[in-house]
User: Fold this.
Amino acid sequence: MKADLTLDARGLSCPMPILKTAKKIKEIEIGQVLEVLGDDPGTEEDMPAWCGQSGNEFLGEEKEEDYFKFYVRRKV
Amino acid sequence: MHIGFLVRTGPYTSQNIDTFYEVAKSLLKKGHQASVFLYEDGVINIDKDIKSPQERNIKDRMVELANMGVVFKVCGACAKFRGQTKNDIVPEAKHAGMAVLVNIINESDRFVSFGF
Assistant:
């Protein structure tokens, strides 16, 4: 999936992946896509939950060998 | 009603998880819903390798609740700090984080925390 900006949150523990996503997404325009790299065990459930709470769109995830790539479209 | 729970203590030391089990079971029998976020040592309660000779098996009790409809979320960071991976927990539970805990609290009519 193509992204407009990437946040590398690997090595960070909850809640930092979400907090950094909330901050980083403000650097892209509404409609653009942020890619978040994360390896915290809780982020797979947390990212779609945060998207629902914040009004952004969770586009999906891709599993790499030892981390995930999450894709979020800025909507607000 | 939907009741949310937080359990912060592990098995066979404090009896918080046993209280949660009895309360949740009673709630479900009355037609209510329950969700639980296992936090700090609470993540150990869902370890699939718990063995309890001649004693109640807490992991089996959690699976029983999950099969009755209780949603189990387990703090991923707390799990990591305790050497727990997703392969160590029963498939009925999922690692999650603060955003999911916030959802549980927001979606619950009441929220009960079992701590120290």
